[in-house]
Specification:
This protein is mainly beta and 372 residues long. Helices cover 11% and strands 32% of the residues. Strands 1, 3, 4, 5, 6, 9, 11 and 14 form an eight-stranded mixed sheet that branches. A hairpin with a 4-residue loop joins strand 3 and strand 4. The longest helix is centred in the C-terminal third of the chain and has 13 residues. It is globular. The chain starts with 10 loop residues before the first helix and ends in a 15-residue tail after the last helix.
Length: 372
């Protein structure tokens, strides 16, 4: 009997390699430094990024639009959230037989082409435009493994987009929901200047605003936290991409099966550290605790693109948090969040040593550690 060799690549992995652009892998990357290659299908230059924490749940692409040029039109059956790293331009969006809608964007803009609509990105400036997009293409391509269907399906999701004139106007529909803050908007002009609501559940003195965009399951949030402070550790499902907008620092990550005291229990060698600055993108693997530390002289700010929509919930993502909203609930109460008083004392000691080197004072609230 002839022995067949198994193809270990997923349909998504096979497709992105056939696209012929660089594929960058690792725990984290600096978006502006990602090496790009010619991308004939798009009409620009670009690359795919495969972060360790994506694990087939999400994908990422970085695309450069030449000065004064436009990319080729696209449409597809996967969701995509686009962040403008640099440059000025506009987007044209339409459905077959419908009117064309235009909106302008600049550095820091965030938007999502409605599912299976046609769209085209146009560089209206004299310098290159650079975008970074997170998609759920890996799941869609792996499920259907038929690119003609994914890129040429005629169905129009009019419940998501039906040519509304004000679709891409920045909304001010914001409200609290449970332990989080929600902002429903299909466009954010500049995430760097967007207001972030006060939120102490994940960081003392911090802020968090989650946004629902384009009726997606793929959404995100903005967070910030002060100088001399750090986030509480928590874990969730795969696929989240975290992009640093301001300050510098580091993130510690470790598998949750090591427990909440990785150093104290002798697993310090398995804790992964990712150093970051503005422009760094990284992603925690599925079920890994991760904790963010500000080492800069300014408030740290982060954009997260992820699953976790409150309007269109995904069962696998809810389950990964143990319960809905589990990332805001202590592990002692059945969630996935480690409160400061429950964390490994070595974590604060290491942070205090790091900021002391930089002449920054620790500004964390006093803590009385609970017994292990």
């Amino acid at each position: 009997m002839m022995q067949l060799k198994e193809d270990i690549a997923t349909p998504y992995e096979s497709w992105l390699r056939r696209e012929g652009v660089p594929v960058i892998e690792g725990y984290g990357v600096n978006i502006a430094e990602v090496p790009l290659g010619d991308w004939p299908r798009k009409g620009g230059r670009g690359a795919f990024v495969q972060l360790k924490g994506m694990e087939g749940a999400t994908g990422m692409e970085v695309v450069e639009i030449p000065p004064g040029k436009a990319l080729e039109p696209e449409k597809h059956l996967y969701e995509k959230v686009i962040y403008v790293v640099e440059g000025l331009g506009s987007t044209e969006v339409w459905t077959e037989g419908g009117e064309r809608r235009f909106f302008e964007w600049g550095p820091g803009s965030l938007f999502s082409p409605p599912l299976n609509s046609c769209y085209r990105l146009i560089n209206g400036g004299s310098q290159r435009a650079l975008t970074a997009a997170v998609t759920n293409a890996p799941m869609i391509v792996d499920i259907f493994h038929n690119l003609d269907f994914i890129f040429n399906c005629p169905y129009q999701f009019k419940d998501r987009f039906n040519g509304e004139k004000d679709y891409f106007e920045m909304s001010q529909k914001r409200y609290p929901l449970g332990r989080t803050n929600i902002w429903e908007t299909n466009f954010i002009a500049d995430v760097n200047k967007a207001g972030i609501d006060r939120h102490d559940w994940k960081a003392a003195g911090g802020g968090l605003t989650a946004f629902e965009i384009a009726s997606n399951t793929l959404v995100g949030h903005l967070v910030d936290w002060p100088v001399g402070r750090y986030h509480k550790a928590h874990f969730h499902g795969a696929g989240a991409v975290l992009l640093i907008l301001a300050s510098e620092g580091y993130t510690l990550m470790w598998p949750n099966d090591l427990g909440i005291h990785p150093y104290q229990d002798g697993h310090g060698d398995r804790v992964v550290r990712v150093d970051w600055k503005a422009g760094t993108a990284f992603g925690p693997p599925n079920g890994w605790f991760h904790q963010h530390f500000n080492l800069g002289n300014e408030k740290a700010k982060q954009l997260a693109l992820r699953y976790g929509s409150k309007k269109h919930k995904m069962g696998f993502y809810v389950a990964a948090q143990k319960r809905d909203g589990g990332v805001f609930i202590s592990v002692r109460e059945g969630g996935t969040l480690i409160e400061y008083e429950d964390e490994d004392p070595e974590i604060r000691r290491l942070y205090e040593a790091e900021i002391k080197k930089r002449g920054i004072a620790l500004d964390m609230p006093p803590v009385q550690y609970n017994a292990a």
